[in-house]
């Protein structure tokens, strides 16, 4: 990592990740490209005064300032954000993989919150919650109508406080209350196992502070179980990203030493950096090389990387590096396309600004932004295809998204047609009983893309997609 950037900034490589910067206000001022627009600032002060004195009811002046900052930053791009005290705390929790809550992975089903899995050892796990349990109420609030984020916020809170969940267990046809005491939860971002003799699977759900250490341990466990591994699947599906140094480290685990993993380019000098597969670019200041104990065979074992539309940012950095260096076959669907760098700078002891400072480029110089990584082999979600993939949002669909910087974007009229067809299919799917709508769990023998990845590693026929369309697939290079 460029040492200047490493020292002065906390760099985010994902939608929910970042790092705390020690940059001072003087440094920000030195980085200004133009003098302050005094006339416009006077107008801002005048509006503030009018709202404070003329609005129909008293307005909190701190909230006015906070809202003004939020509006200024929100006009830039979808990933720049002002953090107030509460959101800054939540942001930091996202990078560490620690938070205070009940310890369940959740999704939405029929307007209710479904328990995907309780985290092993968590308060929810000890309380007996099971996969597929439906949460109908959180304390006195009915869940129907709440967004997933709102439900999460209500279940989180301070340590040692209690939350009352009302549970409907479908297979027992009963509703019952469960009172759970919140605790600090450590999320597990790495899973893996030997799928069959000679073939392993490792899944990364996010790039957090502990991801690299957990990845190393999981690789060691797999090689201990099967020392003669003939192939490995690195599963990055639905991984929204996370910390940049973790993405560089995971890439370095498979690549030759010192090759380029990713480069960044922006206005600031420290935004123009090249990150290589070497310890000085990913190891933490106080620690040693976290990859030092990895089996040497990991550098050469045949590798398939699974991605989809939910693979973003740090996931795309890893997939792009392994693809450009021809170290892995990338399989799945075109990725999300978040190829921008966010740096988080504190504005005070408990507020901060997350601002886009650079674009990411793969080792070959191709921008990831609003394009994503195109797999070497396009694979559907199931043997029947990917009927709902067109409905998924990508970076290029987000309002005010940053352009790639490598030529104009093209809009595919066929995509809107595919979306209309997908909406009709979704309406039909919603009429089916819940048990007929289950999505196969990642890492099982019913996981169609994983089975195709294993077929690829074994030299067996692969069922490639016949319907997927590549969005804006231009082979353009970064200008130097």
Q: How would you summarize the topology of this molecule?
A:
Elements: H1 3-8, E1 10-12, H2 25-30, H3 38-54, H4 61-74, E2 81-83, H5 85-96, E3 98-101, E4 104-109, E5 112-118, H6 123-126, E6 134-138, E7 141-142, H7 148-155, E8 162-169, E9 174-181, E10 183-186, E11 190-196, E12 199-204, H8 211-225, E13 231-235, H9 244-254, E14 260-265, E15 273-276, E16 303-307, H10 314-324, E17 329-332, E18 340-346, E19 352-361, E20 377-378, H11 413-430, H12 448-458
Describe this structure in words.
There is one protein chain. The chain is an alpha+beta fold and 480 residues long. Helix 9 packs parallel to helix 10. The N terminus and C terminus are likely disordered. The strands form four sheets. Strands 1, 2, 14, 15, 18 and 19 form a six-stranded antiparallel beta sheet that branches. Strands 4, 5, 6, 7, 8 and 9 form a six-stranded antiparallel beta sheet that branches. A six-stranded mixed beta sheet has the order 11-12-13-16-17-20, with helices on both faces. Among the domains are: 89 residues, PDZ domain (Pdz3 Domain, Roll); 219 residues, 2-enoyl-CoA Hydratase, Chain A, domain 1 (Alpha-Beta Complex), CATH 3.90.226.10. The protein is built from twelve helices and 20 strands. It holds the Pfam family Peptidase_S41. Keywords: Hydrolase, Protease, Serine protease. Belongs to the peptidase S41A family. InterPro entries: ClpP/crotonase-like_dom_sf, CtpA/B_N, PDZ, PDZ_6, PDZ_sf, Peptidase_S41A, Tail-specific_protease. One of its GO terms (molecular function) is serine-type peptidase activity.
